[in-house]
Amino acid sequence: MLADDPFWDDNGDVMGAPAIFGAPPYDDRLFRSLCTSTPRVQRFLHDASRNLFERVPDLAGLILITASEAPSHCYARYHFRTDAAQASDDPWAFGPGRSLPCPRCGVRSPAEVIGEIVTLVTAGAQEARADARIIVWNWSWSFLEPDPSAGIVAALPDGVEVMADFERGGTRMLRGVVREVDEYSLSYPGPSSRFSSTVELARDRGLPTLAKLQLSTTHELATVPSLPVLGNIYAKAEAFARSGSVGFMGCWNMGNALSLNAVAFNFFLNEGPFDSADAALKRLAMIYLPGADPARVVEAWSTLGEALNEYPFSMSFLYFSPANYALVLPLRPTPVSPAPVGASWIDQPRGDDLSASLAELPLEVVIRQLTALSAQWRIGAEQLERALADVEPAATTRAEEEVASAWVAWASFSSTRNHYRLFALKRRWHDGPLDRDAYARIVRDELRALEVALPWLGGKEMGWHAEAQSRMFDRRRVEEKIADLRGQLEAMPPPGRDIESAPPPVSEW
User: Fold this and answer.
1) How many whole angstroms separate alpha carbon 281 and alpha carbon 264?
2) Which terminus of the chain faces fewer neighbouring Cβ atoms within 10 Å, N or C?
């Protein structure tokens, strides 16, 4: 709760560590956690869990996140790495270089505190329902102790199940450079070393394990219902099957459309084993897309998967690129505005400064990767549309959904590339006029992308970002942008004359 909440006036004995919570609408406000090392809070955790299962008798179980982006217990926002704690100016960045500001938890380990919380919640739940399932998710345990969080796994009570992120904690090669994967990903099949080692530790304890994935889409492009890269889905399913886990969670706060991706993951698990990936994908195409030529469908899926391998994966790009809303982000022949383009998962006012998305990959690398991604993806989208042109009537809607996702994804990737191309042009533009011809080429490329996307924007999931709880783009706003760009081209000076400098506009959408 907020540090100035009246609750603390009478309950100072259970006040835990302070933390700044920076997410809207709590920007930079000070919170205090209930200290789980106090007897009163321990009784509360136990009794609240028991009461919940008594009052909701059909509740099957709970999924527990015990590290957090938000303050929740004294160690929730701790970071074991000394360099991370010391380098940060944030008051919550406690680690070995800074003592935890709680006199009780500060003399205990994160693993001890986490294990105790899980034990209390489990005991309360199972007093009310003996078969209550308690699934303990390893989300960001890597903040609390080094991978694979052996101390936390050892501290868990018997009978709980451990769910581990399938991709987070992995690495992938991008043009000869090893990149960290710390998010859900459809371009990286997994499993990560963190997943595998955590699962091994849990097995040694006799605890069942599950995998945490997002199957329809991810932050890589969250505003299409799915990314139709079924070969990548097959690779994930095969790796998951080899892990021996008892189950998986394939959705979260985005990527929840009931797409062919989700169907396919289950299909590969339930209908396998297959002789090869090609055999599995052809069988999937025959059953779920009847009437299509399976070989041509698999070829298209393969091309799209190869294209996604070119995705410029980095945490800064995922969180701060305009990919999710590029189709309606304005293009203007003006200097770079002081305002950043903003977060990719929040609907907020937008500038056009893309610097925050380039913290890990240079601008020229991002443009090169997006160029390769867009070119290959377009080939795959064309292949998929041709392959699904003759499906049986019963599969028409399903085929249209797949093709729509493919084309809108291509347009989004292409538009994102255009915004980075324009950003590069603007960064070279210090004094005098802007290069008219270069800007006109970007505008024409953008128009092509928008015009391709426009016929496919009718689906209820298209443009919807489930984490932002907002429609990031729609047909009306794309049409308005098309009209704006056409007007810009018509108003441009004749060839050979450059565009005069003008102050940057303020975006109001």
Assistant:
1) 9
2) C
* Rounded Cα distance, 158 and 176, in Å: 44
Q: What pLDDT, in 10s, does the model give residues 268-278? A: 999 989 999 99
As a whole number of angstroms, the distance between CA 326 and CA 303 comes to 23
* Bridge partners for 342 per DSSP: none
| Beta-bridge partners for 29 | 21
User: What does DSSP say about strands 247-249 and 209-212: parallel, antiparallel, or unpaired?
Assistant: parallel
Q: What percent of the chain has pLDDT over 90?
A: 78
pTM of the predicted structure, to 2 decimals = 0.91
Please tell me the predicted confidence (pLDDT) of residue 81. Answer: 54
Task: Look at residue 98 and give its three-state secondary structure.
Answer: strand
Give the separation between CA 316 and CA 323, rounded to whole angstroms.
Answer: 12
Q: Which two three-digit tokens encode residue 468?
A: 């932002």
69 burial (CB, 10 Å; 0-12 / 13-18 / 19+) is: middle
Nearest to 365 by CA among 321, 416, 312: 312
Measure the CA–CA gap between 92 and 19, rounded to whole angstroms. Answer: 5
Residue 271's closest CA among 286, 259, 291? 286
96 exposure class (CB count in 10 Å sphere: 0-12, 13-18, 19+): middle
Tell me the domain boundaries of the chain.
1-159, 297-491
By the 8 A CB rule, do 363 and 417 touch? no
Burial class (CB in 10 A: 0-12, 13-18, 19+), 425: middle
